[in-house]
Specification:
- This protein is α/β, with parallel strands linked by helices and 376 residues long.
- The chain folds into 2 domains: 118 residues, Aspartate Aminotransferase, domain 1; 219 residues, Type I PLP-dependent aspartate aminotransferase-like (Major domain) (Aspartate Aminotransferase, domain 2).
- It has 14 helices and 13 strands.
- It has a 7-stranded mixed β-sheet with strand order 2-8-7-6-5-3-4, with helices on both faces. Strands 9-10-13-12 form a 4-stranded antiparallel β-sheet. A two-stranded parallel ribbon has the order 1-11.
- Strand 6, helix 9 and strand 7 form a beta-alpha-beta unit.
- Helix 3 packs antiparallel against helix 11, helix 5 runs parallel beside helix 6 and helix 12 runs parallel beside helix 14.
- Bound molecules: pyridoxal-5'-phosphate (PLP).
- Pyridoxal-5'-phosphate (PLP) binds next to helix 5.
């Protein structure tokens, strides 16, 4: 036994170097944790840090979850049959063109398993959703980061940046955390320039609440061999806690993405809730309406406070407050959780998720108090 000991070594010394080097994604702090820290009741804290839906959960989804609570001793249907049929019908695609994930984050991970690795590269825009880069680091792919244009994707430069070893190009629209938006004609011109063997991922997590008309990327999914559209139930449908999203692409692509999928990756409750949520048009309309109202409110308040902001198409706004980390901390002490975006290379900004109108007013009142006048 003793001679097998290697006291100079520890199991963690054997963690794959690419994994050991990772700095895990820092999600928005949980409401309960902040409430405990500052000694407030959770109801007194407002969380405007993870782009969740200010109206809560789709009421039709809540009803479905109540109805199905007692089925939860059963494993889920791994193929998500009913949800698959419903999504296929809604998008007018074949059921086998859809792949489901525990949130669209898991789908991004499937893309990593399938297409990333040593000797390959991905193309991303500076300030794009950071998970793309984290996955590339984890899988050992090179990252070609293309400088942003007014905080948004420079699609022309991204197309030009594609290298012979590029396997995936990520297009996040509307983009998190900047809220920037790509117009249909920009996307169409971009798709034309990307070789057929390079996967284009359209990450459209905010599509259903987009404050600008969404490009018809489904058209490219149907016409081209290399386009994948990602959607989630986390935002517009208010189901972030359930973890469910989907991708639509050509069948040979979705079949490849299915391979790294665990048999029960999306849970039974999530599937039931998602089926019901897809019928909840009223909730979608109210969500979009509140987002529009919030955007007008924040833009006007920022102008009044002399704070620069990025015009946004999502349910959040990127505001240049100067010293974002410190401002976020000050807001946290007042029971308002927003997102500093230092890891994105935006140390002077904070990202504020749109809340209910009283929550929006609360964060602006707090900023008015906190911000030294005339600074941004
Ligand atoms: C652009 C974008 N893509 C994907 C996701 C992942 O969402 P989920 O895993 O909840 O579907 C998010 C979440 O914030 C996002 O902003």
């Amino acid at each position: 036994m003793n001679d097998k000991r290697r006291p100079d070594k520890n199991v963690v010394d054997w963690v794959e170097p690419a994994v050991a080097r990772l700095n895990p994604y820092q999600p928005g702090r949980p409401l309960e944790e902040v409430a405990r820290e500052i000694g407030l009741a959770p109801e007194q804290v407002c969380k405007l840090a993870s782009n969740e839906n200010a109206l809560g959960v789709s009421p039709l989804a809540v009803e479905a979850m109540r109805r199905h609570a007692e089925d939860m001793y059963l494993y889920p249907d791994g193929s998500a049959y009913y949800l698959r049929q419903k999504v296929a019908e809604n998008f007018q695609v074949r059921p086998e063109q859809i792949v489901f994930g525990a949130g669209s984050n898991e789908l991004l991970e499937f893309i990593g398993h399938c297409f990333m690795g040593a000797g390959r590269s991905i193309v991303v825009s500076q300030y794009a959703f950071v998970i793309y880069k984290l996955l590339a680091m984890m899988f050992g792919s090179d990252i070609v980061e293309v400088p942003a244009c007014e905080l948004g994707h420079d699609l022309g430069a991204m197309a030009a940046a594609v290298r012979p070893d590029t396997r995936v190009v990520f297009v996040c629209n509307p983009n998190n955390p900047t809220g920037t938006f790509l117009r249909p004609e920009e996307i169409a011109a971009f798709v034309e320039r990307i070789p057929d063997d390079v996967l284009i991922v359209f990450d459209e997590a905010y599509a259903e609440i987009s404050l600008e008309p969404m490009p018809d990327t489904l058209r490219f999914v149907l016409e081209r061999p290399n386009c994948l559209m990602l959607r989630t139930f986390s935002k517009a449908y208010g189901l972030a806690g359930l973890r469910i999203g989907f991708g639509i692409g050509p069948h040979n692509l979705t079949a490849a993405l299915e391979k790294p999928r665990q048999p029960f990756n999306t849970n039974r409750m999530a599937q039931e809730a998602a089926v019901a949520a897809l019928d909840d048009n009223d909730f979608l309309i109210r969500t979009r309406q509140l987002c529009l109202e919030s955007r007008d409110y924040f833009e006007e308040a920022c102008r009044e406070l002399g704070l620069a902001y990025a015009p946004t198409a999502g349910n959040f706004i990127l505001v240049r407050t100067g010293n974002g980390g410190e401002i976020a901390q000050k807001l946290t002490r007042r029971g308002i959780i927003v997102r500093p975006v230092v890891p994105y290379g935006l140390p002077d900004h904070i990202r504020i998720t749109f809340g209910t109108m009283p929550e929006n007013q609360r964060v602006i009142d707090a900023l008015r108090d906190i911000m030294p006048t005339g600074s941004n």
